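This part of the workshop introduces the protein records we will be handling. A record pairs a protein's sequence with a compact description of its fold. Comparing a sequence with its tokens is the quickest way to learn the format. To make this concrete, we reproduce a full record directly below:
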Amino acid sequence: MKDALPGHESYKNRLAIPYITPSGVVDIRFRTLNNNPDEPKYMGIPGAKTTMFNAQTVLTAGNYICVTEGELDTIILEAKTTHSSIGIPGVNNWKPYYSKILDDFETVIVLADGDNAGLEFGKKLSRELPNVNLMQMPEGHDVNSIIVQEGKEWIDERIRKCLGK
């Protein structure tokens, strides 16, 4: 987003990620494109409620679904592989009713980031859902970085193992 709308200057030079539902765009989150530790990685519109990203996928996924920790990981996983995915923007944004949404899947594969927050995310979902298969990314990696480094085959192979294939 190069030319910010009035009042949105703080989102300038960030990737705009829309939360799209059948009724239209319900939220937009903005991700930094650099790794400056002095600025937040993600920003949201004040007053917007944090929700499940790519939620409509639960209606079309097969007998399993992947859950990533963040929007960009969901976008990359769906773009580079054939695995249906939703994103939860951090462990603190998990809502108890998400369990009911994911309960009907045979398997929920949680692709947790390779850090302490990712491990906590995976553990929390494992406690909430009986059908979780936890797939922790290597230390310091997330879905996006591991696909860039190792290729989509790395993820595909591990997801097949989670599914017993």
